[in-house]
Please model this.
Amino acid sequence: MTLEESIRLHAQDTPDKIAVVCGADTITYSVLWDRILQRTEELKAEGLEPNRPHVYRATQNIDFIVTYCAVHYLGAIAVPLEHQALEEKFKAVSDEVNSCEFTEDIVDILYTTGTTGKSKGVMLSETALVSCADNFVHDLQFTPELCFIISGPLNHIASLFKMHPALTVGGTVCVLDGLKDMNAFFDVFDLPFAKFATFLVPASIRLIMQFSYERLCSLADKIDFIETGAAPITQHDMEQLSKALPKSRLYNTLGGTEIGAVCTYNFNDGRYMEGCIGRPMKNSTVEVTPEGNIIVSGLTIMSGYVADEENTRKVLKDGKILMVGNERSNYLYSVGGRIKFGETAEEAIVREVYEETGVKMEIDRLGFVHENYFYGDDKRHHSAWDSLCFDYGKNEVVHFLLSNCKYWLEEFKFDGFRFDGVTSMI
Model:
């Protein structure tokens, strides 16, 4: 059953149930369905036709959900871009998708963030969306009593694909504009719902535990589950989060725009296995290669890239997608680079921070670029200091640290330095 069909049924069966909360705004299933029908007629009047793309910016509000569902109900293809997408990008994407013909099963085109190379338009079928939602409902146990908090950009898979299962089962979605206001995040738990859940990238989990650990612990009876992904989570963070929420399910999920959600692991099991991807979800199949990479297949994977048959052939073969890893990090990713072509370091940082946390920032100038300065294996975390360990085998790390010493010597005329814990450096 599609998302729109589910909303229609909930509007009939539980018309007064709250479907979406966004700040002071709330909307019931009955009103949500009426607005979807109204927006569908507006899109028709604007000339949108079935199986044609509708490119629009993803705002963090109820209107986005209404438009997204209306595009589907019309039989068209939703192409949401980040809210701050420049006009040049908006036009380039519009020109690209409008120049293509699509098979009838394509309902979404999601442009990747570019962390695995040049931003690409990922074509997703109705089957992929429904199957991915079914994976979450079955394996993460979404229920009608649940209020799911979405803090990331709604055009990003980590947020968009949680809206699907929450509304499919008749639950409630609470949309936040990022985590820049931590009080707004914690205020959600005062709403009259029996259970709460959310998705947080590891960096956000670490931020909450560092500055609001006691408040997090006080929610142990309210948080049904937290899901993380999009980046590696350390064993230390797994253990600390489990101590804060001993009754909650804490999932580390393997997923991506190209593959959907395919594996998950509840690390609140006393073992806290860093790098563990768990078991395949209901509609997914995973094969492990001799090199330790994995091959993903099943109903959730993409149909291909827009206007890019070459890259589609590289990534997708016989209905399977290869996910690779490396020796330094317990993280799997599709083949590619990390920075968009033609993008400055400043632009990349602003984009990545917003896409992963929802926080909009400005940069006057970069003081330095810090990337992969720490170990990515079991030597990464120093348990006694509760900090990360520099990888002194890298020239860029040594140069960075020596430049700091040089700065203090020349700028403040220091006589010397005392180094503690030298044994951890050698």
About this structure: The chain is about 35% helix and 20% strand. The mean pLDDT is 88. The longest helix spans residues 395-412.
